[in-house]
Amino acid sequence: MSTEGPTQVITSVLRTGVIVGGVMALVGSAVLALLRSTDPGTTRLAELAAFAPVGLPLALVGVIAVALALRPSFGRAGLAIVVAGALLTCLHGWWLAPLYVASSPSGTGPAMVVMAQNLEYGDVSHVQEVAGRLDVDVLCLSDIGPDQLASIRATPALARAYPYSAGVTEEGTGGTIVMSRYPLSTTWSSTSGRSLTVKVSGPTGPTSVVAVHPYPVYETQAWHDDYAEIGTYLRRTFGTNPRSPVVIAGDFNASSDNTPFRRIVGIGYRDGAADTNAWYQPTWPAGSKRRTFGIPVPPLVTLDHVLASRALAITNLHTVRVSGADHRAVVATVRRAA
């Protein structure tokens, strides 16, 4: 016959619940770590990999919950769970650490300011206002559909501020436009027409600006194909660890936790967010385009990035809200590497 009173029963149930919840959090963290370490072939798993930073708080909460619930006597199973949770916490922390503690390269000479904005829904006039306020030199505008292309053409202030442009000119969808204060010439366009390279004669000298916008991850095969083409182009044109001035900017439709994005960085490019210790700055979903139970979903994932070759240094990077857009813009200050 049990001698436990109501208080002991309630305490035991709560303790069990905390342990189960903590273990579930650790399992979730482990799944995210696994997806981050591999290249999932299915759409949902590839999308889930982009949320790998959530693995850090999950691991931290899980290990603390289990440790508190099992103390003072852990037992072998409990000790194994706590150690595994601590290792998961360290692993996720190691992946995120560059955003907070990485050493930043120093730059010299005049700056070129680059702004990357997915403009599928954004207000073109507000883009012009924001770019002017931030003294932007080069605009990389992606996801340009017929309406946005018409809006760009109907905004004379934008054309006056950025008289040089290249990219989509027809009434297609999903195209990319680069607009610049300085003369530019087109040197490459991807098969999909969603990414292109221009050479800008700007403050950092002749600089190749690669404006990218791979297919979204839910078009999984096209996403992989686009990334493969971009990677092949970068290697063939600039080589590995390129020493010529190259900037890669845009909506990558991937976070730094997606393997295809890391492969691009691995060719030899600096991630501006890490180089400037910009902290975690998610860019999607912005505004109120995504809602759950009628409540706007805040930005959760960093899909928009600016990278640079080692000939350059990104000395400042931040995100900014553009009215109507479902992505925050990324604005980076680029100088020649010291």
Automatic annotation (TrEMBL):
Record domain Endonuclease/exonuclease/phosphatase: where: 125-327
Keywords associated with the record: Membrane, Transmembrane, Transmembrane helix
Tagged with keyword Membrane: yes
InterPro entries tied to this protein: Endo/exonu/phosph_ase_sf, Endo/exonuclease/phosphatase
Highest taxon listed in the record's lineage: Bacteria
Alphabetized Gene3D superfamilies for the sequence: Endonuclease/exonuclease/phosphatase (3.60.10.10)
Pfam families the record matches: Exo_endo_phos
Matches recorded under SUPFAM superfamilies: DNase I-like
Signal peptide stretch: none
Transmembrane residue ranges: 12-36, 48-70, 77-97
Keyword Transmembrane helix part of the UniProt annotation: yes
GO terms of molecular function: catalytic activity
Protein name, entry field: Endonuclease/exonuclease/phosphatase domain-containing protein
Organism phylogeny: Bacteria, Bacillati, Actinomycetota, Actinomycetes, Micrococcales
